[in-house]
Amino acid sequence: MNDIDTPDAAAHAAPGQAALDAKWLARAIDLATLNVSQGGGPFGAVIVRDGELIAEGQNRVTANLDPTAHAEVTAIRAACQAVGDFSLAGMTLYTSCEPCPLCLSASLWARLARVVFAADRDDAARGGFDDREFYELFARDRATWGMAVEAVRPENAPEPFDAWLALEARTDY
Ligand SMILES: Nc1nc2[nH]cnc2c(=O)[nH]1
């Protein structure tokens, strides 16, 4: 079992929460290990609301030819379908590994209340995954990146936002 009862976790968790966290993290880790034997990457995740399992996810990047199919993202997609909403406000994401920047951003967009992880970015690096490197990249000037990120600003660049703001019946997210 993982020792997740750190001072930091304890500061945010209600009494009894540590045992519940351990239970859901164990499921996420099981999903991750199982996924390795099923042609996927070593990552698993579950989404829980009020102690109830809403959805599970596994890394399907290579299996689905989808670089965004990280375990957390597949769990978020499945949870949104399960509850019929693009918001997962009030829910907790348990993941077998610290979310990479993609998964952390997806978690923020999904408005999750909590993210709890087991292995960390150093464990992922040992497994050959770039999570830590991407965190380090975001802390650096983009000019130093291997991938060019270029702002080109045609006159009508803000136009889609004008259309959005003019739409009274828009669904904000
Ligand atoms: N947390 C996490 N990190 C990854 N790095 C590569 N794939 C994944 C994934 O599915 N989850």
What report would you give on this structure?
By secondary structure, the chain is an alpha+beta fold. The protein has a single domain (15-166), classed as Cytidine Deaminase, domain 2, CATH 3.40.140. Helices cover 43% and strands 14% of the residues. It is built from eight helices and four strands, in the order ααββααβαβααα. It has helices at residues 7-12, 17-36, 61-64, 71-83, 101-109, 121-126, 131-138, 159-166, and strands at residues 44-49, 52-58, 92-97, 114-119. A four-stranded mixed beta sheet has the order 2-1-3-4. The longest helix has 20 residues, at 17-36. The protein is globular. The protein binds guanine (GUN). Residues 41, 43, 59, 70-72, 95, 97, 99-100, 103, 124, 129, 131 line the site of guanine (GUN).
Distance between the termini: 37 Å
Supply the number of helical segments: 8
CATH architecture type: 3-Layer(aba) Sandwich
The number of domains is 1
Radius of gyration: 18 Å
Assign the CATH class: Alpha Beta
- Work out the number of β strands: 4
Helix residue percentage: 40-55%
Offer a quick outline of the entry.
This protein has 173 residues and is an alpha+beta fold. It has 8 helices and 4 strands. Strands 2-1-3-4 form a 4-stranded mixed sheet.
